[in-house]
Every structure is written in C-alpha cells, then in structure tokens.
Write a structure and sequence with these properties.
Strand content: 15-25%
Radius of gyration: 23 Å
Oligomer: single chain
Number of strands: 15
Order of helices and strands: EEEHHEEEEHHEEEEHHHHEHEHHEEH
Number of helices: 12
Helix content: 40-55%
Length: 407
C-alpha cells in the first residue's frame, strides 16, 4: 500500500516499513510503537488532504511540517537535527528532514477518499461528564477523536442501543440528560442502567472503541452528505475548480467526444475525492483493561467489521498483549487454510468473516534500540511461535528457579 521510512524521531532510530492493509506493532513501553502509529496517521492524513484538495502546498517548509506533527500528535521534542521521514504511496511522495520538506502528487486519479480515525489509549476520557467543556484549544488527535465520538454516539439512543461485544452490555446516548449522557445498560434491562462514568475501566475503554468501529465502518457512510457547512462547501467549490483544470471543457464545442469524456471523468473524480469510501482505524492498545477472552472477541469483531463489506477498511494496532497476537495468529492460520481450499472445514471452528488474508497483514516487534523486526515466519506465514514463547519464557525461568529451592 505504501512505504514508510523513519530516522531519529522519538525513540525510533531507523525503520523501513512496507505498510499493508493490517499493521500490528508490539513492544515494551516507550519502545516507539505509538510514534510509528502517529506518523502513519499523519502521513496518510497528508495524502488524503493533498489529493482531495489537489494541492501540494500544505506546508510552507520543514518547520511548519514538524510543528503540525508535534502539535497534532503531541510529539514535542521527538524531532531533532538528524530526523528524517519519507512516505511514498502510488498517490503521493513526502520527504522531510530538518532543513527540507517536499510533497509531490503522483497518481491523482485513482485515490479514493478515506476516513482516518485515531483512537488513543486514553479513550476512556469520554466517560468524563464535563468532557464537552474541556475540549478546547489547539487541534490535536485527542480533540479529533473526541469530536468523532460526539458525532457517532448520538446515533445510538435508547431505542437503538449498541451491543458491546458479547459482554451482555449495551450502550446508549441519553440526549435529555443534563450530565452523564453516556449510559451502559445490562441486556436484561434490569440488573443496572448506569452512567458510563460509573462503569468498570474495561467498559470505559471498550465502549468508545466498539462504538467508533461500528459507526465509522457503516452508518457514517450513509450520514456523510446529510449535513454541510460554509467551510465544507467552499472546499468542494475549490475542488471542482481544480478538477475542471484537469478535465477542461471546450465551450465552443460542448458536444464533441472529448468534452463528453472529460465530463464523465470530472464526475467520477469528484465522487472519489468527496465521498469517503473506506475507514483507516489507528488504534492504541485495544486490549486496555480487558480480560484475555474479551481481547480475543475484540480482535474477531474488528476483523469481521473490516471483512464484511466491500469498503476494504484497514487498521493499524499498537499493543503490549500476547493474547492479541495469539488471536491474530489463529485468524491468520485460518486464512492460510482457506487459501489451501479448506474454507468449508473452517466454518465450525472460526467465523468465516473473521479470517485474515495472509497477504494483507504485517506484524512487527518494536525493539528497545529503536528498530523493528517482522515476526511473521517466512516458511509458515504465521506469527513466529518463538516470539510468542519468548514473552513468557523469562517468567517460566524465574518460576523454575524458585521451584528448585524446594529440593
């Protein structure tokens, strides 16, 4: 899909990364997982903004590029004189170092607009009753996440509650409540009906995550063009003018074949650049405060959401959890067996919609020295069992050493 090169940004020393539809990064705290995810988010946003405005004039210079990355993704102090970033897809080429910034549009005609949604690890902040009064000031990923939450939650009132995985819990938005508009109710409707702010930490983490995945993979696409604003209309008008320059119409001969062809191309390009076609979910620590079996459910749900439509939704995940990797490995194994012609035999074991195409995923260990390593085994195509075993190996050795003291 795209290639990303990072040097000396935050804890990352140097990485070269071919991005796929699904990208997973595991590593210890402060190893650089979120740095990679934030830069993927920022570069894909640049791609979207440049192509959907047909403009390569997004940043005046390298300083402005760095400042926007620092401000939006809270990366102050991450960049230095040796920092370098390069991103290239079929649509765009971005280059940055401390002295130079380049942005080049490549293929402007095949890009399809996408929704890019960054879901941070501190997403449980949505449970704070005074949240609406707190989100002010500069444009940051946390502010964008909160506005995405505000837009999505209103779709789930008490008559249209959202089921939270298989936890026997449902979410609904009570627009008439003065405070604590976000509610969690037991599916039997009797055990309790409480504010999200009074729910467990696990529910406070998984509820916004599930709701945003659900809404921005489905209903969002039907709702997108129902509202407009002056700013949005001006952007559309400017885009129309730019498209007209690519596919001009000869006013003196409106009905010739070239004019008709250009008119079709103009409409097609306008639709692709104005209407979102897919969502790219960038999720920090989906396992946060969740029991291992719930982590597995969540991964199944996310893959199923991405697979069940023709919209080709994608995701990037950062995680600390071996349970997340294990569940991904199960779905990846199922995908390998499906390619071997065993699809029918899989139905009673895994949900067919949750199977992972092995060609669409990259799984990487982020090392403490600021590099990454693919942990997909070249022979099996699955996540390396040696890596999965190594996570618990040190604990096992310590336990064995203690056990031997008995004798």
């Amino acid at each position: 899909m795209a290639h990303l090169h990072i040097e000396n940004i935050g804890p990352i020393k140097v990485i070269d990364l071919d991005l796929k539809r699904y990208n997973v990064f595991i590593g210890s705290q402060s190893s650089g997982k979120s740095t990679i995810a934030k830069l993927i988010s920022f570069c894909t946003w640049i791609e979207k903004r440049a192509i959907t405005t047909l403009s390569d004039n997004l940043f005046a210079d390298a300083n402005e590029f760095r400042e926007q990355a620092e401000n939006y993704h809270k990366m102050h102090g991450y960049f230095n004189a040796d920092s370098r970033l390069e991103y290239q897809s079929e649509h765009i080429h971005v280059f940055y170092n401390s002295e130079e910034f380049k942005l080049q549009l490549l293929d402007k005609l095949s890009y399809k607009r996408k929704k890019i949604i960054y879901i941070p690890s501190d997403r449980n902040m949505v449970a704070m009753p005074e949240l609406e009064r707190m989100i002010v000031g500069t444009n940051t990923n946390l502010r964008s996440f909160t506005f995405d939450w505000f837009d999505a939650r209103s779709m789930y009132d008490k008559g249209h509650r959202l089921n939270i995985l298989d936890l026997n819990m449902e979410y609904y938005f009570d627009k008439d409540a003065k405070l604590n508009k976000d509610k969690i109710i037991h599916t039997n409707g009797k055990t309790y009906d409480i504010s999200l702010s009074d729910a467990s930490s696990g529910l406070q983490s998984v509820t916004p995550l599930t709701l945003l995945i659900e809404y921005y993979s489905g209903q969002y696409y039907g709702d997108y063009n129902k509202t407009t604003s002056y700013e949005k209309q001006k952007e559309l008008d400017d885009l129309s003018k730019a498209i007209n320059l690519i596919f001009p119409i000869d006013a003196n001969n409106k009905h010739n074949i070239l004019n008709l062809k250009n008119a079709v191309e103009r409409r097609s390009l306008y639709f692709k650049l104005v209407t979102p076609h897919t969502t790219d979910f960038i999720i920090e620590e989906p396992e946060q405060n969740l029991f291992p079996s719930t982590q597995a459910q969540l991964i199944n749900y996310l893959i199923e959401i991405c697979n069940k439509t023709d919209q080709q939704h994608s995701f990037t995940i950062t995680t600390h959890s071996p349970y997340i990797l294990t569940q991904l490995n199960i779905l990846l194994f199922a995908g390998i067996l499906e390619k071997q012609g065993k699809k029918e035999l899989l139905k009673n074991i895994v949900n067919p919609l949750a199977v992972i195409n092995p060609e669409e995923i990259g799984v990487f260990a982020v090392q403490t020295e600021g590099t990454i390593e693919s942990i997909l085994n070249d022979q099996s195509g699955m996540i390396s069992q040696n890596y999965l075993d190594s996570i618990s190996e040190n604990l096992s050795v310590t336990f064995q050493n203690l056990y031997h003291l008995i004798f």
